[in-house]
Design brief:
Blueprint: E1 8-17, E2 20-30, E3 35-39, H1 46-53, E4 61-66, E5 69-70, H2 76-85, E6 87-90, H3 102-112, H4 117-130, H5 146-158, E7 164-168, H6 176-193, E8 196-200, H7 204-207, E9 212-217, E10 220-224
Parallel strand pairs: 3-8, 3-9, 6-7, 7-8
Antiparallel strand pairs: 1-2, 1-4, 4-5, 9-10
Helix pairs in contact: 3-4, 3-5, 4-5, 5-6
Bound molecules: adenosine-5'-diphosphate (ADP).
Length: 228
């Protein structure tokens, strides 16, 4: 059963890669504006679940519903449009374009969507300010610290106003102090934008920034109530 009011939900997902079972009956649901952490040890199926939810990987069985529509019933072009227009992504390593400055990187998704350079860069500066990295707007990724790079990556993921932000170990390459600051800014910025966040992490310290946790173990999921 898809929970009522869920923006994005998955039910009984199965996925195997050759002899490896990545998902073995995983379910998931997130409501608008909610921050949900997907927890579990390495190799438990967290990234596979995120990739299925984002329409990047097709599960072997099970259903995924976004805004009341099944992903599998959508055409490839509709799914791509969803990823570009309504989803945002942050990965462990920012994956910024090395030749572009921070502000140009953040403006890029808007430029690709047809927004002119000035309005795109002005919106980008606003997001860099929210993420407290406007002072490095003119620098290229190679001239940024790991924490600054991840903040720029978060700004780039939120600049289009996505309804869902997918974050896969967004602080995995940072020390704990920088990681916590990035999580604070990421969740504040997403909440102010009304974006839901699917946060994949194996660190309880990072998951603590979520509203709710889903634990994945051997490809199976379990809902956890937040304690404390
Ligand atoms: P986690 O994100 O929890 O570390 P993953 O979803 O990345 O787990 O992986 C779950 C299992 O599926 C692992 O055993 C992994 O090796 C395997 N797996 C994931 N993606 C692939 C792939 N593209 N090809 C083959 N095996 C994969």
């Amino acid at each position: 059963m898809i929970p009522t009011g869920a923006l994005l939900a998955a039910e009984d997902l199965h996925k195997t890669y050759g002899a490896t079972t990545a998902l073995d009956g995983a379910s998931f649901a997130i409501h608008p504006g909610e921050v949900v952490a997907v927890m579990g040890p390495s190799g438990s199926g967290k990234s596979t679940l995120l990739h299925c939810l984002a329409g990047i990987v097709t599960p072997d069985a099970g259903t995924i519903t976004y805004d009341g529509r099944e992903l599998s019933s959508m055409s490839d072009s509709r799914r791509s449009a969803l990823r570009r227009g309504e989803f945002g992504f942050v990965f462990q390593f920012g994956q910024l374009v090395p030749e572009l400055s921070a502000v140009e990187n953040v403006a890029l998704p808007l430029r690709l969507g047809g927004t002119g350079r000035r309005p795109a860069e002005s919106a980008a500066r606003g997001w860099l300010e929210k993420l407290e990295v406007d002072d490095v707007a003119g620098r290229r990724p190679g001239e940024l610290s790991g924490g600054q790079g991840q903040r720029v990556a978060v700004a780039r993921a939120l600049v289009t106003g996505p309804r869902v932000l997918f974050a896969d170990e967004p602080t995995g390459a940072l020390d704990s102090l920088n990681g916590e600051r990035v999580m604070e800014l990421l969740t504040d910025a997403a909440r102010s934008a009304g974006s839901a966040v699917v946060l994949v992490t194996h660190e309880p310290r990072v998951a603590a920034y979520s509203d709710r946790e889903i634990v994945v173990r051997d490809g199976k999921s379990r809902d956890m109530e937040r304690v404390g």
